[in-house]
TrEMBL record:
<dbReference type="InterPro" id="IPR052384">
    <property type="entry name" value="TMTC_O-mannosyltransferase"/>
</dbReference>
<feature type="signal peptide">
    <location>
        <begin position="1"/>
        <end position="17"/>
    </location>
</feature>
<feature type="region of interest" description="Disordered">
    <location>
        <begin position="344"/>
        <end position="372"/>
    </location>
</feature>
<feature type="compositionally biased region" description="Basic and acidic residues">
    <location>
        <begin position="345"/>
        <end position="363"/>
    </location>
</feature>
<protein>
    <recommendedName>
        <fullName>Tetratricopeptide repeat protein</fullName>
    </recommendedName>
</protein>
<dbReference type="InterPro" id="IPR011990">
    <property type="entry name" value="TPR-like_helical_dom_sf"/>
</dbReference>
<keyword id="KW-0732">Signal</keyword>
Length: 447
């Protein structure tokens, strides 16, 4: 039996040559840093398969990178001429002309002629019309770009055509042109009636009316879409926000509540509800939705800690703790968050037993002059230390807290003074010092 040929002989055999193999060899040479061999192999592949778009573009772009604009242009031109029924071939040539020579009138003319021929073969093709519109505008041929707009707007265009026409109208007509605006209104309203389920169209239509000062129409466009697609939560949220902006508070509130009832992780809806409830002085509801918005969307440290303080001041330590645990997810190395979390965890009965570790971690993150010098943190930490019989460490923190409380925190300072005095009295030591502390506390906060 004859032995099989070694694989390397098969690969090197002329009979085995193919554009795919040459391309692969070119990529391999490219990876090895041999640019010359790579270019030769890929050019060989292109010559064997001149209709292969990836090969043409790779070789042409290599010419352009080497400064050979004429060589690149020739490749694209021949590719387009040899493939008249392929739009990618026509676009490759036209786009190259516009990109490589943006200020060259002759290149612009060649690009225009290429695309006009393509449009004659593919009438109504939006991708061609868009390119021609830009070329006509760059060549100051406003009559032709206007004709493109009219050709799209005169029929009953689909969503893509409508959006293209609206974009063209912004270029063609001044903002105060009432006739043009009415035409755009008609296009958008008609398209939304025909395709109410299209979210891009609905958002574009709503934004058109909103930015032209017509909130009722902006709301109407989104309402039709939401009715057609109830699961479109992003735009339902947008609808609620616009209803609130139009001072239709009850409608907006209900729209947003419906959103979070469907998906409680819709952060923008929670954020908008929190803003509404703060405006209406509904603090509890504002806290609830504000916390959920932060949990979903994240936020800066101040947003988390300020809201956590609201929960603590309302005697809701569990809510504060849950919020701050999420804050640590977003800001794992922030000492201020760690300090607040330790305090909230100690005040929450569910987590009190595990809070000692959090105080140590917060002190470590904070350093000597960081947020762990906060007197509230220090007094709470002192209680943790007392529970574990670390009296000296607890005393040190109470002393620091007493020195640190600002002058307006008389009641809090008095509480820390009494706590320190109670330690001394309980251990029957420094009785005179304890009396002095109690006298000072009574002076700040008489009982």
């Amino acid at each position: 039996m004859k032995s099989a040929l070694p694989i390397w002989l098969v690969v090197m055999s002329p009979l085995a040559a193919s554009p795919q193999l040459d391309f692969a060899l070119g990529i391999l040479a490219e990876q090895r840093g041999d640019g010359k061999a790579a270019a030769e192999a890929i050019e060989k592949a292109r010559a064997a398969d001149p209709a292969a778009y990836p090969l043409v573009t790779r070789v042409a772009e290599q010419h352009r990178a080497n400064g050979d604009i004429e060589g690149a242009s020739t490749l694209y031109r021949e590719f387009a001429a040899g493939q008249p029924q392929r739009l990618d071939a026509q676009f490759a040539y036209a786009d190259f002309l516009r990109e490589a020579s943006p200020d060259d009138d002759f290149a612009g003319k060649m690009a225009r002629e290429t695309l006009e021929k393509a449009l004659a073969r593919f009438p109504g093709q939006l991708s061609i019309q868009r390119r021609l519109f830009r070329i006509y505008e760059s060549l100051d041929q406003r009559d032709r770009s206007t004709a493109i707009f009219e050709s799209i707007a005169s029929s009953q265009p689909g969503p893509s055509e409508v959006l293209a026409a609206v974009d063209m109208a912004r270029t063609l007509f001044p903002k105060d042109d009432e006739t043009a605006r009415a035409k755009v209104d008609e296009l958008l309203k008609g398209a939304c009636l025909r395709e109410p389920e299209d979210p891009v169209l609905a958002r574009a239509a709503s934004e058109h009316f909103r930015t032209t000062g017509r909130l009722p129409e902006a709301i109407e466009m989104l309402a039709k879409h939401v009715e057609a697609v109830p699961s479109s939560l992003a735009l339902r949220t947008r609808l609620g926000i616009l209803q609130l902006a139009a001072e239709r508070d009850k409608e907006g509130e209900q729209t947003l509540l419906d959103v979070v009832a469907i998906d409680n992780n819709q952060g923008l809806a929670h954020q908008s509800l929190a803003k509404l409830y703060r405006k209406q002085d509904r603090a509890a509801e504002a806290r609830e939705h504000g916390a959920q918005a932060l949990k979903v969307k994240g936020g800066d440290v101040a947003q988390f800690t300020e809201l956590a303080d609201e929960f603590l001041n309302a005697d809701l330590p569990r809510d504060a703790r849950l919020l701050l645990e999420k804050a640590m997810f977003y800001h794992p190395s922030d000492a201020e968050v760690a300090v607040k979390l330790a305090v909230a965890s100690r005040r929450d009965p569910e987590s009190r037993e595990k809070s000692s570790r959090l105080f140590r971690e917060a002190e470590s993150l904070s350093g000597e002059k960081g947020p762990a010098t906060d007197p509230v943190f220090l007094t709470e930490f002192a209680e943790c230390l007392l529970e574990s019989k670390q009296t000296k460490a607890a005393e040190d923190r109470l002393r620091t807290a007493i020195r640190t409380y600002p002058p307006d925190k008389k009641k809090e300072t008095a509480t820390a003074l009494r706590r320190l005095a109670a330690i001394w009295q309980g251990e029957k030591r420094n009785e005179e010092g304890a009396k002095a502390l109690l006298q000072r506390a009574d002076g700040l906060d008489p009982r």
